[in-house]
Design a protein that fits this description.
The complex is a heterodimer of chains A (about 475) and B (about 90).
Chain A: H1 10-18, H2 24-42, E1 45-48, H3 52-65, E2 75-79, H4 106-113, E3 117-122, H5 156-163, E4 169-174, H6 180-186, E5 189-192, E6 212-217, H7 220-230, E7 258-261, H8 263-266, H9 273-288, E8 292-295, H10 304-319, H11 337-348, H12 351-364, H13 370-393, E9 396-400, H14 416-420, H15 427-432, E10 436-446, E11 449-459, H16 464-477
Parallel strand pairs in A: 2-3, 2-4, 7-8, 7-9
Antiparallel strand pairs in A: 1-3, 4-6, 5-6, 5-10, 9-11, 10-11
Helix pairs in contact in A: 2-3, 10-12, 10-13
Chain B: H1 4-13, H2 20-37, H3 73-77, E1 83-84, E2 87-88
Antiparallel strand pairs in B: 1-2
The chains are: A alpha/beta (about 475), B mainly alpha (about 90).
């Protein structure tokens, strides 16, 4: 039988599996065929696993018995930095080529236990450092909507895999915008959960105080299903929070929500005019649905990006010290031990990774530590307090997700600062540890191609429900 | 302004070999980023801010549920470039 993957959501597929319209094996076969056919041009996958059909068979057994979890039998993709026991995982880096995971991360374990069908691992910027998926050691990922353009990053492969029909949903990781920005550039829903909502156990660390695993879906409902499957307390990650035990209390939501708009941030130079116009149109639509729009003043939020590009490289330089040519993967033979370290890391890491490690080393080094790292930590605390205060008077904060639609491959890669600006709207959620979602919010025309742009909502810690409600409101207005 | 010598020093601290040719471009890139992030200096802050990573609380657990020794050794060592008798093999340090 033929299954049209392009319009198939997880919600619909789960119903069809239960109605026996098709089996998970038939669905997985259809998705695998599509994934393999499209991957040559798009490069979303680093590897399509050869054991997916076996998982589908298991899922069919569970579905036949009834009472299967909602994701049972659903083909999904995981990012190449999520450990999956017995499978290669490289974080898009040459230094980890051939590395086989010795255990599965908690998110992956939970997917397996609900019999989701893991199709493959998706390409990403090396160690999740980037906003275009051009720094991947397996080559750049193309945006399926326009293959001359980037899919965003760093989870560009996870976004592209869903758009090209090679998975019904996927997971990425978001340290500064790496789920929401590609969701925006590819026309998907992408969620960065509250810090502590999803276990980081088995996620290769970039910057541990920012990293969160989160989903990509075609709809808000799909993203919510994918989030619910992996969320929750995990003894393997002490930053995860037991249900209802957060120290950060959010106020209950009313029937209509109050939406804060930080006008001064949105007026910043360098934001595409069409993106701004689209954003205004979405806000107007929400107002006409009866939600209250409120201009909010967040003087410190504009400093988020500077704070981020101090703390993130600092944490990355420490986390990536483990790649030493001794314990994993790529190793360069030399006479002395220190040369083994230096040459393995010098050749094994790509350019952006080397740049960020050196930057992190600089801001942590004697003489600069107080001026950069300690200062950034203090400002981070103030930004978090500023956002927590804002959420006392508004339910969500809305901004565009990214300052521009999908850009051309090669357009920003030579200029790190230009690339970093991509994170301007997304990074505050990571700084403050609050959740953020990107939802498709209109299109702009570039070179005759209609490109999607996202609208982002942030909410108070553990208020993902407010984000799903806003996302659904946007879906209804389009 | 970062100099080539600064990059040499950082590359030694970070244990990353940097080619002569790359020192200049790295100095330029790092200068640009440091120039940008220096704007944090303009924010008046209090000393001893509490790092805001998640909910901070003590996490205690009993030291039980210990796996048998060596259970994961083979799997882990399989990823290493050089091993001997269940150990990572490393060059002489001094």
């Amino acid at each position: 039988m033929s299954i049209d993957i392009s319009k198939l959501t997880i919600t619909l597929a789960a119903k069809a599996l239960r109605a026996k319209d098709f089996s998970s094996k038939e669905l997985t076969e259809a998705v695998l065929t599509e994934a393999k056919a499209k991957n040559k041009a798009i490069n979303a996958y680093a590897e399509i696993f050869d054991d997916a059909m076996a998982l589908a068979a298991h899922a069919d057994d569970m579905l036949a018995k009834g009472d299967a979890p909602i994701l049972a039998g659903i083909p999904i993709a995981i990012k190449d930095n999520m450990l999956y026991k017995g499978h290669e995982s490289t974080s898009g880096s040459k230094i980890l080529r051939g590395h086989i995971a010795a255990y599965s991360g908690t998110a992956v374990e939970r997917l397996l236990s609900c019999r989701a069908v893991i199709i493959g691992r998706t390409n990403m910027d090396e160690f999740a450092m980037g906003s275009s998926t051009e720094t991947c050691s397996y080559g750049p990922v193309k945006n399926p909507i326009d293959t001359t353009r980037v899919p965003g990053g760093s989870s560009g492969g996870s976004a592209a895999s869903v758009v090209m029909g090679g998975a019904l949903g996927s997971y990425g990781s978001d340290t500064g915008g790496s789920i929401r920005q590609p969701a925006s550039l590819c026309g998907l829903v992408g969620l960065k959960p509250t810090y502590g909502a999803v276990s980081r156990s088995g996620l290769m660390s970039l910057a541990s105080s920012f990293d969160q695993i989160g989903p990509f879906g075609k709809t808000v409902a799909d993203a919510q299903l994918l989030f619910d499957a992996v969320r929750g307390h995990d003894p393997m990650d002490s930053t995860t929070v037991p249900e209802g035990h957060s120290l950060r209390k959010a106020k209950p939501l009313g029937e209509k929500l109050t939406i804060g708009v930080p006008e001064s941030l949105i007026a910043t130079d360098g934001i595409d005019e069409d993106v701004r116009a689209n954003f205004r149109a979405q806000i107007a639509a929400l107002r006409s649905q009866g939600h209250t729009i409120k201009n909010i003043d967040l003087p410190l939020i504009a400093r988020s990006l500077a704070v981020y590009y101090i703390i993130m490289p600092a944490e990355a330089s420490a986390n990536l010290a483990r790649f030493d040519g001794i314990r994993y993967g790529f190793s360069k033979e030399a006479d002395k031990l220190i040369e083994v370290y230096m040459n393995s890391r010098g050749e094994g890491f790509g350019k952006e990774t080397r740049r960020r490690i050196l930057l992190g080393t600089y801001v942590l080094s004697a003489g600069y530590y107080d001026a950069y790292y300690n200062k950034a930590v203090a400002v981070r605390r103030m930004i978090r307090d500023e956002l927590d205060r804002a959420f006392e008077s508004v339910d969500v904060i809305a901004t565009p997700t990214s300052p521009s639609p999908a850009f051309k491959i090669g357009e920003k890669i030579a200029n790190p600062l230009k690339m970093y600006i991509e994170d301007i709207f997304t990074v505050s959620a990571n700084i403050a540890g609050v959740p953020g979602i990107s939802v498709p919010g209109g299109t702009v025309i570039r070179d005759g191609v209609s490109l999607p742009v996202g609208i982002q909502f942030m909410a108070a810690a553990f208020q993902e429900d407010a984000l799903f409600r806003m996302g659904t409101a946007i879906e209804q207005s389009i | 302004m970062l100099t080539k010598d600064d990059i040499k020093h950082l590359s030694t601290l970070a244990r990353i070999a940097v080619s002569e040719a790359e020192e200049e471009s790295l100095a330029k890139d790092l200068d640009a980023v440091l120039g940008y992030v220096s704007e944090v200096a303009a924010v008046a802050t209090q000393k001893d801010a509490i790092p805001p990573a998640g909910d901070l609380r003590n996490i205690m657990r009993d030291d039980d549920d210990v796996h048998p020794g060596g259970e994961f050794t083979d799997m882990i060592l399989k990823n290493a470039p050089d091993t001997e008798d269940g150990y990572f093999k490393v060059k002489q340090i001094f």
